[in-house]
Amino acid sequence: MKKWVRSGLVWAGILYIITMVLFPLVDHERFDLEKLLLGLPLWAVVGLMIGYLFERKKSKTKRKIKHDSV
């Protein structure tokens, strides 16, 4: 598994737990199974996007540092 995919899925899990579990608990809302299931693909996509963008930014920074040192 690529590093950015693993990182993205970790971000997805963290964001899913915060938004779909912790916030409703704090607001004393009832859990809706449909809402919980629909949140899985949404946060998976968002997490993968975050992981990809972080990896892309990191690789651009490494290239710039390498280019500047030459």
Give a structural overview:
The chain is mainly α and 70 residues long. It has one domain (3-69). 87% of the residues lie in helices and 0% in strands. The chain is built from two helices and no strands. It has helices spanning 3-26, 33-69. The chain is elongated and about 55 Å long. 7% of the residues are buried.
Keywords, separated by commas or semicolons:
70 residues; 2 helices
Summary of the model, kept short:
This protein has 70 residues and is mainly alpha-helical. The chain has helices at residues 3-26, 33-69. It has one domain.
Average per-residue pLDDT, rounded, comes to 90
Q: Can you tell me the number of structural domains? A: 1
Into which percent range does the helicity of residues fall? over 70%
Question: What does the overall shape look like?
Answer: elongated
Major β-sheet profile: none
Determine the structural class based on helices, strands and strand pairing.
Answer: mainly alpha
Counting DSSP H or I runs of 4 or more residues, the number of helices is 2
Number of distinct beta strands = 0
User: Strand-and-helix sequence, N→C?
Assistant: HH
Give unreliable regions as ranges. none
Beta-strand fraction estimate = under 5%
Radius of gyration: 17 Å
Separation, N- and C-terminal Cα atoms: 32 Å
Secondary-structure blueprint:
Blueprint (H helix, E strand, L loop, with lengths): L2 H24 L6 H37 L1
Helix pairs in contact: 1-2
